[in-house]
Design brief:
By secondary structure, this protein is mostly beta strands. The chain has a domain of 61 residues: Cadherins (Immunoglobulin-like), CATH 2.60.40.60. A hairpin with a 6-residue loop joins β2 and β3.
Length: 101
């Protein structure tokens, strides 16, 4: 996150609010860099809606309108298949039609 008003002199601070702000997601108030504090699982929550704002550090007044954004969690195959009663044996005759059980 970065404001065009930010000249890099420390006069701007960035704040984050919304789902998981300050617990799951943190923002560096000086740079606007946002980080996740833990590994996220799409099966627990598919997305988070956050709001960010750049404030004048001296007056605490916004220098730009608040921005809302959505962080969408991508799924990875973290649940490997398990075959409890294996081993299994199967065969498919050569030249079998597609899609038959």
């Amino acid at each position: 996150l970065h404001s065009d008003v930010d000249k890099g002199d420390g006069s701007i601070k960035y704040i984050l609010s919304g789902e998981g702000a300050s617990s799951i997601f943190i923002i560096d108030e000086n740079t606007g860099d946002i980080h996740a504090t833990k590994r996220l699982d799409r099966e627990e929550q598919a997305y988070y809606t956050l709001r960010a704002q750049a404030l004048d550090r001296l007056t605490n007044k916004p220098v730009e309108p608040e921005s809302e954004f959505v962080i969408k969690i991508q799924d990875i195959n973290d649940n490997e298949p398990k075959f409890l009663d294996g081993p299994y044996t199967a065969g498919v005759p050569e030249m079998s039609p597609v899609g038959l059980d």
